[in-house]
Specification:
Blueprint (H helix, E strand, L loop, with lengths): L1 H34 L5 E7 L5 E7 L24 H9 L6 H7 L3 E3 L9 H10 L7 E3 L12 H14 L2 H17 L12 E3 L2 E3 L6
Length: about 210
């Protein structure tokens, strides 16, 4: 029964949040527009539940010359594309607020694996193996509170699969609490690709080079 309850909570909470945060969204949108040329909202194709594709909404945090269909985690020079306002938005995760519309539409959930860009082929295959695509993607998830940008694709896929297997109200509440802590401390925030021999969670690990 929890998937039904989870969807009802997604609808009620996302609608309430959109109403309450509408003034903030308007202010942030104006700041984005004033900071750099281009639209306030950024739309990008992502892969959702059962690998169905949809368009995710975010407040634009990069300049319009940035590659549109590449995950930020695969950019070697990500910092050069991020705007001044975008840097603050990304650090505080405020750029993710428009995804509440995706939640309301049923394309996403508040909690779930982060939706991937279609061309992230390696981690797509890993997610298929772990069964992560059985659930809706989320604004935040188990992988995000266990390392976020500082963990490698196999670990992310494993954590996403764990969430799909153990999805529950208790786990979702735990993720919400951990997400607040991560946002307040900016824990796990990293822009761009992991280099070789990056110190991840205190351990030297060989990252896979990007194509």
């Amino acid at each position: 029964m929890y998937p039904i309850l989870k969807r009802l909570l997604d609808i009620l909470l996302s609608l309430a949040a959109l109403i309450a945060l509408l003034p903030l969204l308007i202010v942030l949108g104006v700041l984005v527009k004033l900071d750099s040329p281009g639209p306030a909202l950024f739309k990008q194709e992502r892969v959702g539940r059962n690998e169905k594709r949809f368009y995710i909404y975010k407040l634009r945090s990069m300049n319009t010359s940035a590659p549109r269909d590449v995950a930020t985690s695969e950019l070697q020079n990500a910092e050069t594309h991020i705007t001044r306002v975008g840097r603050v938005l990304r650090k505080t995760s405020l750029d993710e607020l428009p995804q509440l519309f995706n939640v309301l539409k049923g394309e996403m959930s508040l909690i779930g694996p982060r939706p991937l860009v279609p061309n992230e082929k390696d981690i797509h295959e890993l997610r298929r193996q772990t069964g992560a695509y059985r659930v809706r993607p989320g604004i935040t998830g188990w992988a995000q509170v266990n390392g976020r940008d500082c963990i490698l694709p196999p670990d992310k896929a494993r954590l996403d699969g764990y969430y799909a297997d153990h999805m529950s109200l208790w786990l979702d509440l735990k993720i919400i609490v951990y997400s607040v802590i991560c946002v307040l401390t900016a824990r796990g925030v990293r822009e761009g690709a992991l280099p070789y021999d990056e110190d991840v969670d205190g351990e030297k690990r060989k990252a896979k080079p990007n194509a």
